[in-house]
């Protein structure tokens, strides 16, 4: 496992907030808000998001307890190994690590179309390459620089989204009677289910546990971030339904935020939402690279990945792991951009995240029985009763995502893909990992810059 000796503890609470919020605030959330509004049947979309946020808070409590027990860059690998077993912990860890690449690739697809709409002369694919290259370069300069970029873009994103939404609401001069705000339609619970995925990714801040000044700020950061996401995207959903009472008119748009901005505030609103979209790119790409590279680094330190993945550069950054993730994200982003199959990745990624939320609920319960005397700076609520409820709810949500049609003839592509990915991970764990563990090679390090 990674040791805290390898990293500098320099990140403050604000970076826990901005990283947790930024990883969940992808540009695909704007498309999800349209779907939530359609299912909710109007202005109660904000309420669906609030209810979904309450469900996610319980998942956050489980991550907080586990992170407090074993703060590590290996994060969920440590917890599931102790709470389940070694083999399936590794399989889950490898599958889980791919979700960051899924989210970045799907988000890159949406962002490419955003910038193509804003500046048609420059192909969207160019923007994707430039943004990923910029974020990779920033991360290679060390976690302190990456943290500053995350803080700047994360708080700018949420602040401008809130201000934009409030201006739209006041500018619209449309009365919002309580009957509309609290209307519960026949598809409202589907709106809640989709709303859960607005928050997906908030927990990926945990692999940075060894680089925070105090890892105990992570739970506070996650809960603050969940509140900010609920406010920001709740207000955006409300503004969306005020300007477009029939949200279904936007369901085929890849840039609903730009359409809303233009309809509500004209060119100012359009360019405002272009800037907001840019901040989502920086927070999602930057945060994803920073956290996932530490997770991959920790797995390599355990000798379940090639030793070169555990090499640190002079800025104490796992450079090979970072560049590998960047290359994988770029390759998949190009494929998605050319094929348009972004829904496939969203559903697959959402399913993996849901299953991990279910698994952590069970792990919390198992570790309460197996390690009752282990210190727990934070204790989750309602164990074991709430643990089983959360496990069942998120398992059902994950199954729903897997079975969602993503191609012609209703073929459940995400289900088939995840089965094949899990089989591949299992084969790797059974046949490749033993050889890596038998190797005596140690990862190389470069002397850190002073």
Descriptive report:
With 450 residues, this protein is mainly α. It has one domain: Amino acid/polyamine transporter I (Up-down Bundle). Helix content is 70%, strand content 0%. The chain contains 17 helices and no strands. Helix 1 crosses helix 10 and helix 2 (28-40) crosses helix 3 (45-69).
The CATH topology turns out to be Amino acid/polyamine transporter I
Give the count of structural domains.
1
Relative helix content: over 70%
* CATH hierarchy class name: Mainly Alpha
Which spans have pLDDT < 50 for at least 5 consecutive residues?
A: 1-5, 446-450
* Count of strand segments: 0
* Helix-strand topology string: HHHHHHHHHHHHHHHHH
Q: What value does the Rg take, in angstroms?
A: 21 Å
Q: Can you name the CATH architecture?
A: Up-down Bundle
Distance between the termini: 25 Å
- The fraction of residues assigned to DSSP E strands is under 5%
Number of helices: 17
Largest sheet: none
Give a concise summary.
By secondary structure, the chain is mainly alpha-helical.
Which features would summarize this protein structure in a list?
450 residues, mainly alpha, Amino acid/polyamine transporter I, 17 helices, 0% strand, disordered N terminus, disordered C terminus
What's the topology here?
Blueprint: H1 13-24, H2 28-40, H3 45-69, H4 76-83, H5 86-118, H6 124-140, H7 143-172, H8 178-181, H9 188-196, H10 217-243, H11 256-265, H12 267-301, H13 319-339, H14 342-370, H15 385-402, H16 413-431, H17 433-438
